[in-house]
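Module 6 notes. Inverse folding takes a fixed backbone as the condition and produces residue identities as the prediction. Think of it as a translation problem where the source language is geometry and the target language is the twenty amino acids. Below is one complete input and output pair. Work through it position by position during the lab.
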């Protein structure tokens, strides 16, 4: 197990315990997400000048939605979701 201790403003020290696999998986997920965000932003910027016959942008970023609930992860735990 890998133990991370973080300082708290109230003087309490909460402990967070994760396995090294979980820690590596979360780090990889964040790196992939950041790389994809950068790639999408660069793609939109490169093609922003493209317009159709009505002068509408042909390449746009549609936005973001809230994070989806992961049932597989929730069911792998013995705890109920929520």
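Target side of the pair, the amino acids:
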């Amino acid at each position: 197990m890998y133990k991370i201790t973080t300082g708290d403003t109230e003087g309490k020290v909460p402990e967070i315990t994760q396995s090294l696999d979980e820690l590596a998986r979360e780090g990889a997920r964040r790196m992939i997400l950041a790389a994809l965000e950068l790639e999408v932003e660069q793609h939109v910027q490169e093609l922003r000048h493209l317009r159709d016959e009505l002068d509408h942008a042909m390449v746009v970023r549609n936005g973001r939605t809230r994070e989806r609930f992961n049932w597989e992860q929730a069911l792998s735990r013995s705890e109920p979701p929520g």
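Reference fact for the lab report: The CA atoms of residues 27 and 48 lie 32 Å apart.
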